[in-house]
Design brief:
The protein is an alpha+beta fold and 98 residues long. The protein has helices spanning 5-14, 19-31, 34-37, 73-76, and strands at residues 39-50, 56-61, 66-71, 87-92. A four-stranded antiparallel β-sheet has the order 3-2-1-4. The longest helix has 13 residues, at 19-31.
């Protein structure tokens, strides 16, 4: 496992990160964590919206936090549409979009 935190801290002390640099570091940290590579998360679905691409975007939340999520078209085959306000347990990986 690569420890990216020292490199990030060195970069922060040298100057200000761009949004792209910060996002890249966050993405690398998340993708290097095996717990987040394939995990189940439970919460309430809020505002599910399916677009022309067939992908469904929604927020998964609990009383304290929320995650922005996407259910890709190929993964949604055979599933009932997500319902706003319903509790779900979802499986996937946690990452950041660049």
């Amino acid at each position: 496992m690569i420890d990216l935190l020292p490199a990030l801290m060195q970069r922060l002390s040298a100057g200000v990160l761009s949004v792209s640099e910060a996002t890249g570091h966050i993405k690398a940290l998340l993708e290097d964590d095996p717990t987040l590579a394939d995990c189940w998360v439970r919460g309430e679905v809020s505002d599910p919206r399916t677009y022309g691409s067939g992908h469904t975007y929604f927020t998964l939340k609990d009383a304290e936090c929320q995650l922005k999520c996407v259910l890709f078209k190929q993964r949604a085959r055979g599933l009932d549409p997500l319902q706003h306000g319903r509790l779900y347990a979802v499986r996937g990986s946690i990452s950041v979009y660049e």
